[in-house]
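User: Predict the complex with flavin-adenine dinucleotide.
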Amino acid sequence: MKREPIKVRESEASIRRGNFDEVVMGYSEAEAVEEAARCIQCKNPTCITGCPVGIDIKKFISCITKKDYSAAFAAIREKNNFPSICGRVCPAEYQCRRACVFTKKGSAFASKEAINIHFLERFAGDYGMNNNIHIPKTSDKMLSKYKVAIVGSGPAGLCCAGELARYGIKVTVFEALQKPGGVLRYGIPPFRMPRDILDFEIDYLKKLGVDFVGNFIIGRTKTLDELLAQGYSAVFLGLGAGIPSFLGIPGENLCNIYSANEFLTRVNLMSAYKFPEYHTPVNIGKKVLVIGGGNTAMDAARSALRMQNITMQTSDTTIIYRRTEVEMPARRLEIEHAREEGVKFKFLMQPVEFLGDNNGFVKKMRCLECRLGEPDSSGRRRPVPVEGSEFDIECDIAVIAVGLKANQILISVTPELKTDKYGDLVVNKETMETSIKGVFAGGDIVGGEGTVIEAMGMAKKAANGILEYLKTDPVNN
Ligand SMILES: Cc1cc2nc3c(=O)[nH]c(=O)nc-3n(C[C@H](O)[C@H](O)[C@H](O)COP(=O)(O)OP(=O)(O)OC[C@H]3O[C@@H](n4cnc5c(N)ncnc54)[C@H](O)[C@@H]3O)c2cc1C
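Assistant: Here is the predicted structure with flavin-adenine dinucleotide placed in the model:
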């Protein structure tokens, strides 16, 4: 049996760095069937334990080998509402693929490369989408009399909405921004997450009866009490972690220094990437520095480089990271893609100050060289600045991508909502209920910065918690 993994097709780096089209093209039918055939259908499939929502990976891969793609789609949808999305953005190398028997030390297959589970999931998901396959509604007379409010429309909110709407519950999603999708729309760029796929999933929810209300900020537009008073029997909070962290160094308020969130929102949500069709202001400049080493930094750098190529036909974008490539939290694939496209990397550098011109625009970033010390609480080796090693790097745009935390707008006006030391919501881990009865939460607002599938996993748990709450709470019956 052939054991070589089937490589996925990608667009040429020299072309893609000048547009926002999808980079990874996915498998053709023949490629998907061939890759699926590499799966040995283990008796005890460990890959499933690596999936935060427990997709029956063995089953859906087996369906692909039999060319029963509808069944493959249905098998995934039993556990995952958005296979086309997760097949594109899941860090599979840290999740299902890492648990594939082929990667197990000591196993007879240890030298093989893990099955490309995520590309197979994407193939089945796209098949379902392109053939308009929908999961039938489970009508429940008892539940369908209830109204539930979902606040926040990222993967957590959308997933919870879908889970509840399936039972005929009247669901309304309230979102602070004008369009639903959360990070999937305003953060992850279209070259990784094409917007028609996200729109398809949102349209599907609308077909299930879910209503969407934009420009609604819980804690400002209405308080939680005011929302509940509108007749909602339960509320799910999927507010994400949208507040950027900064470096806290002198000069950080100079013009042309962006948080990655602001930069990506301007480019993605407000369509600056469709220049000159859209005129969303986003200054680009000849020399862009992106500070950070996670997925957000990669997305910001790859977006900046594309914007430079589109607007100036040249690019000079550099990622500055204080440790080495080994410690970078970004997905290896994203690092590889960024490098292929021309993003430069400078390691072991710690910014200490930004310097500007007389008009208040950033012109240079002052750094210290670092060396690696002992591992810190994250297990990664700590960067230790080298005294007296100061040097300057020229720049006319800097994008800070050094982490995100929970937005405190709702929390600041709702003291009954219990939070932990990071400002994240505290929930009952079984039901995802917060300290307020009937108010549930999930996604990054609970666990801090995580992944799309982890946010969906929590949302599914919360949906079950809400269903139980609706069934058993005497106030609701
Ligand atoms: C740039 C970037 C790239 C990433 N890349 C990946 C990746 O490749 N793979 C991966 O798995 N994960 C990735 N992640 C992480 C992943 O996107 C998040 O873990 C996930 O989106 C969390 O989902 P969520 O629904 O909890 O929050 P979000 O997606 O953040 O959605 C929260 C929503 O709530 C809204 N909201 C906030 N406050 C209020 C309020 N007071 N009232 C009303 N609405 C409110 C926000 O506007 C937002 O739409 C990335 C994150 C970023 C920032």
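Residues 138 and 167 are 5 Å apart (CA to CA).
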